[in-house]
Design a protein that fits this description.
Layout: E1 3-10, E2 21-30, E3 33-42, H1 51-57, H2 61-64, H3 70-81, E4 85-88, H4 91-104, E5 116-119, H5 120-127, H6 135-142, H7 154-168, H8 170-187, H9 206-222
Parallel strand pairs: 1-4, 4-5
Antiparallel strand pairs: 1-2, 2-3
Helix pairs in contact: 6-7
Length: about 230
């Protein structure tokens, strides 16, 4: 299945209060490798960004004046993401804005066009409970180079998120590889009768027996005499 990493930048924090999307960035991953296929739009939101939002993304109101509105790019966006697994960091935020933009032009909610949505913020909180799990924090923790991220940008953030996701799921990949290797080995396995082997039995020498007994005594002492291998007192 195609995996699409998606990020947005907005004029503010609340779609319900009239904030709009000003940038959308998407990158494609196939078989855990970036394909080079990406989608990127700057959008005219029809309103100015809040000062706090400008400090985050640095995209000026003047720069967006001649950019297309969301309605003009909606079909291209939906065609690009169709049927894919969409991976977003803090998905509730981006989905809230995408759903609001789609509703404005009479289209169904975003999830109806894609196979599924995965939230890497939820994943990170499960893996690193009690720690900071922003995209920058995850880049630092997982060794992803984010030195070029002086300001938030949708396309750059989507690319960083793809790297973060690959690192977050690296253990799953290893597990799948081990499983596949085991299955491959089993297919070509040759039955061996172990009864034909005569293995020598190596007995412990007196020094090894004494050392073992000393370890057992220390364990028994540490557990206040509750070790299960000691005989019960009469």
């Amino acid at each position: 299945m195609r995996q699409i990493f998606l990020d947005t930048e907005t004029t503010g924090l609340s779609a319900e209060q009239g904030d709009r999307i000003i940038e959308i960035g998407c990158v494609e991953l196939l078989n855990r490798k970036l394909t080079g296929s990406h989608l990127h739009f700057y959008l005219n939101p029809g309103r100015d960004s809040h000062e706090e939002a400008l400090k985050v993304h640095g995209i000026s109101n003047e720069f967006l004046r001649d950019k297309p509105v969301f309605a003009a790019v909606a079909d291209a966006l939906l065609e690009y993401v169709a049927g894919a697994e969409i991976i977003i960091h803090n998905a509730a935020f981006d989905l809230g804005f995408l759903n609001h933009e789609l509703a404005q032009i009479g289209r169904p909610a975003f999830r109806q066009f894609v196979a599924s949505v995965t939230d890497t913020l939820v994943m990170a909180k499960e893996m690193f409970p009690g720690k900071r799990n922003s995209l920058d924090a995850l880049c630092d923790r997982l060794g992803v180079d984010n030195s070029g991220r002086t300001l938030h940008g949708a396309l750059l953030d989507a690319e960083l998120l793809a790297d973060v996701y690959i690192n977050l799921t690296r253990g799953q990949e290893a597990l799948l590889m081990d499983s596949g290797a085991a299955q491959s080995h089993e297919v070509g396995a040759v039955a061996v009768d172990l009864r034909t082997f005569h293995l020598p039995v190596l007995h412990a020498n007196p020094q090894e027996l004494d050392a073992h007994a000393d370890v057992l005594r220390q364990l028994d002492k540490a557990s206040a005499g509750k070790t299960v291998w000691q005989p019960a007192s009469p």
